[in-house]
Sequence to fold (298 residues):
Amino acid sequence: MHFVDKKPEDKRIDFNKKLNSNKILRIPGAYNPLTAKLIEEIGYDAIYVSGGVMSNDLGYPDIGLTTLEDVSNRSKQIARVTNLPTVVDIDTGFKDCEETIERFEKFGISSVHIEDQVERKRCGHLDNKELIDKKEMEKKIKKCVKARKDKNFKIIARSDANSVEGIDKMIDRCKAYIDSGAEIIFPEALKDENEFEIVRKSLDCHLLANMTEFGKSKILNYKDLENLGYNIVIYPVTTQRLAMKSVEDGLRAIFADGHQNNIIDKMQTRKRLYDLVDYEKYNSLDEKIYNFNTEGHE
Fold:
């Protein structure tokens, strides 16, 4: 089903090759499988699953209320519908790093990132975050690395220390995380080009930049990040924000006008939706599935 050609191990190999291509990987967040299919169609390099987005989608704030089951099951649904690698935010590791890594690897994920906040964490771009001890985070990373079966399953270490302890101590933490086995570092909430450059010059590993909106980081063009030496840029909440703004505007218009006629042009057409879900391809299973045309449904 889903007409996906690549196996999870192939996607991990692809992710590894892309990381070493000297080109920055552009990775938008997908809050559902259909969005992941659109990300692939447009030509992005991978799919990102944000812990904050998973929380929001369940009606929670991003404060560590989601479970391993919540995030892993949704990630599995997202990862299986495209040929792209999927990178997942596992927050602080869901209490048991070994079980978490085993589950995400089994579910076809290519990479995960774990952060150094306390269990009752918060969005990385909010104030008053609390961190665990550096040694405790090192132990978590080592457990993650040991638990993986596929060496191409990448462990990313995220540090939230910049806005808590300052950039120098954050860099010290990141060096320790690399020594513990993390192959990619995610320095959260860097303010501007200067801080991105300082981190790049200080660390000898692949680096991930977070270009979330309404946060502490200046929004930079992916080419500028590439020139600064970053290997990955994520847009974690962008698609959810776009969707929710559109849904809210549309619902308010229907409530006020009593009909949808004024916003039809804002909607995805039936034809476009059917194209995106590969409706016609399912005729290979049963010719009675797609025995109609979508003319007039544009």
Observations:
- The radius of gyration is 20 Å.
- Strands lie at 25-28, 47-49, 86-89, 111-115, 154-159, 184-187, 206-210, 232-235.
- The domain at 8-236 is CATH 3.20.20.60 (TIM Barrel).
